[in-house]
């Protein structure tokens, strides 16, 4: 029974100490550190050459990322399956019932019509 009592007393002393530390840290220590951090003035001094080099390195990095990461996506695609060549009848049979004599198809009619303009 003595060990249970000692554990209860240790817990009764530990819980208020932990709570007091948490309250002290969140209400005093943390705001003080944050106020000190945010009220500090930070100044950088650099010449134009250094600034130009930084911009050049940054632009080169962005260009490299875009070129090799995004513009090469099509090279990583699986190969496209082969397509069959379409079967096209280059010289279709002409219907002679409604066309003018001597003209075989629409192309001949068109070419004879533009002969007027010298072509």
Helix-strand pattern: HHH
Radius of gyration: 43 Å
* Approximate strand percentage: under 5%
Number of E-state strands? 0
Estimate percent helicity: 55-70%
Overall form: elongated
Mean pLDDT: 84
Sheet with the most strands, sense and barrel status: none
Structural class: mainly alpha
Helix-strand blueprint:
Blueprint: H1 2-38, H2 48-70, H3 106-114
Written account of the structure:
With 119 residues, this protein is mainly α. It contains three helices and no strands. It has helices spanning 2-38, 48-70, 106-114.
Write out key terms for the chains shown.
mainly alpha, elongated, 119 residues, single chain
Please outline what is shown here.
This protein is an all-alpha fold and about 120 residues long. Helix content is about 60%, strand content about 0%.
